[in-house]
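User: Here's a chain of 690 residues. Predict its fold as C-alpha cells.
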Amino acid sequence: MTREDSTTTSEERLRRLRERLGGIAYGGDYNPEQWPREVWDEDVRLMKDAGVNLVTLAVFSWGRLETADGEYNFGWLDDIMDLLHANGIGVDLATPDAVPPAWLIAQYPDILPVLADGSTFGFGSRQHFDVSHPVYQAKSRAIAEKMGERYAGHPALCMWHINNEYGPVSYGPHADLAFREWLQAKYSSLEALNSAWSTDVWGQVYSAWAQVNAPAQPRTWSNPSRRLDYHRFTSDSMLAHYRTQRDILRRFTPGLPIVTNFMRFYKNNDYWAWAAEEDAAALDIYPDPREQDAHVAAALNFDLMRSLRKGQPWLVMEQATAAVSQWSVNVSKLPGKMRLGSYQAIAQGADSILFFQWRQASGGTERFHSGMVNHAGPNTRVFREVCELGRELKGLSGVAGTRSAAKVAIVFDWDCWWALELGNSPRSDLSYPQEVLRLYRPFFDANIPVDFVHAGSDLSGYSLVVLPASYLLTDQAAQRIEDFVSGGGRLVASYLSGIVDQDNTIRLGGYPGALRNVLGAWSEELHPLAGDGEEVKLSTADGGTASADYWTEHLHTTGADVLATYASGRLAGAPAVTRNTFGAGTAVYLSSRVDGTFLEQLLATERDAAGIRPELNAPRGVQVRRRTGNGSSFLLVLNHNDAPSGVDVGAGGTDLLTGTDVTGTVELAANGVLVIEEATSAATAAGTGR
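Assistant: Prediction complete.
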C-alpha cells in the first residue's frame, strides 16, 4: 500500500469512480447465476445498448461462492467479471453474507435470529442471521477475505458493496451476551444502568449483570429505556459487522469506495452513525406509484441521504423500472415516471441511477419485481425508456460531483424516532417519519432547499431550524439549539419536542422541558385528540381562523407572544402557537397539529424573515434544485404534474438533455425535465435559497 493510497479520502475515492465511469453511474443489480451461460452474452450486449456502466454482483451468492464449509467456487464469478470488463462495464462487487447458505444454517441453526416472541426466524428468505453469532461473524470475515484477495486486482472492480439492507434484530442468547457487553461498556456499573433505566419503577432492579438480557416480548409492556438502549445496541452491532468487512476490503483496495445500501424510512439503524463509516450514503428507494404525492416522501429521503455526509453526492443503489412486488397491489410506474424519479434523485444530489435488477427473475420471491429487462424481453416500453435514460445520462458528466446547499435545517434523529415510538405515551399511534414529512412538505412545495441534521449537530451554518416532534434531546443538543437562537437564528419546534433526556427520562417542570427557556412557554398537561377526526378551532393574532387536530397542549407563556389561541374545545382561550424572542433570534412553538394552510403560511413567514428565497418562483408541482461545483452551475427543473406547466427559468442556459438554449418562460411537459447548465454570471447572481 502506498502512502497516497493509505490516506485516500472518501471524496477522492468517489472522484476516481466518477472518472472511471465517465460521470453518473448507471446500471443495477445483476444476478447471472440465475441464468444459463448463453444468456450472459445477450445481457452484456443489451447493457451496452442501454448505456450501463456499472453492475452490482454477488449480493445473494454465498451458497454459489462457498458450496460447503471452506470449499470455494469462484469460477463463474471470474467468468462474468472478465466478460463485463471486456465490454467496458464496471463492477460493484458485494460480499454475500446477507444470505447465509443452507449448509451453514444446517450446521449452526442458532445463527437464525430469534424474534421478540421467542420464535425463530426460519430459513428460506434473506437476512436470516443473528449478527452477534460468532460463527456467522467468522464466516463473514472469511468470505470477505477471500473475495478481497481474489479480486483486488481485477480490472472490472470499481467499488465494494457490503451485505445488503442490514436490518435483522435478534433476541436470542448470542444477542443477550453481546447486549450485556455493550451495556457494561456504556454504563460501567449496574448502579448507573439501574439509574438510567429507572428500574425502581415496577421493581425491575438488577443485582448482577447476568440478569440483564434482550427485551423480549413481556407480559404487557416493557421498560422503555431498556428498549431504547436495545435499539442503539442493534444498530451498533450491525455497524460493527459492516466495519469489520470494510476494514478487510480496505486492506486490499484502499482506493475503492466501500458502501452498503440504506432503505427508505428505515428504523433499525441510525444512519447518521453509519454514513460516517462509509464512502457514500447509498439508498434503495421504492415509492408506491399508487400515491399521488409519493415523490414528496422520496424527496425527503433524497435530502436526508445528501445530508448524512454533509452534502457529499450520494448513490441510488436500487429503484424499480416499473412495478415492485412488496405491496398488496403492485402498480407499474406510468410512462415517464421512472425517468422523472431518476432525475429527481440527481437534482437532489445523487451521482448514480441503479436499479434492482438488470434482468427480471423468472422464479423465486421477487419474480414479479420489474427489471431493466423484463419478462417480455428488450422489445418493450420499459427497456426503451431504460435505453433513452442511459443515453441522456452520458451527457451529464459535468453534473456528477457537484453539490447543493441550504439555509434551512430539519432535525431527523434516530434516538428521537426510537424513543417516540416505544409506546406507553399519550399517543402510541404517532409516526415520527410522518411528523417530519408534514414539516418538510411546505419547504418542498416552495422549492426551498433543506438539509437534515441530527439533534446534536452544529447549527451555526443555518438561518432556520425546524424540530418535528424532537421528543428526545440531550443536554448538549438543547444547548446547541439555545445557542443557535440566541445568536440570531430562527427556530420552529412542534409538539412532543424536548420531552425526555438521553435516558428516555421525562424532564420535569413542564413540557417541553429541554426547550422551555428558548420557547418562552411551557405546557402543564398534554391533551391528544381522538383519532377519529376530532378537531379544534384556532383564532389567530391577526384576526383570522385556523384549525388543529390530533394533538393539543395546555400551554402557558412566560414571555412569548401568542400567534394563535384555541377557540374551541377544552382548552378554549389558551395559547396554541407562540413566538418568543430569545437573544438575537426567535423561537416558534406549535403546541398542536395545525392545518396545512396555517402551517404553510407560518413557515413562509419564518423563512422570509430569515431571508431565505426559492431557487425559482415555479408553479406548485414543479421542483427546482441547483447543483454547483468545479466552476459550473446546473439548474434542474422537474414537472411532477400530469399536465404541462409554464416555468420562468430567468436567464436560463443550455438544456443538456436537448442541447438547446432556454431562457424566460418555458412550457415543461407533464413529467418533463430540464437540466440547464447556467452561464457563470447567471449562476452567481441566482444565489437564492442559500
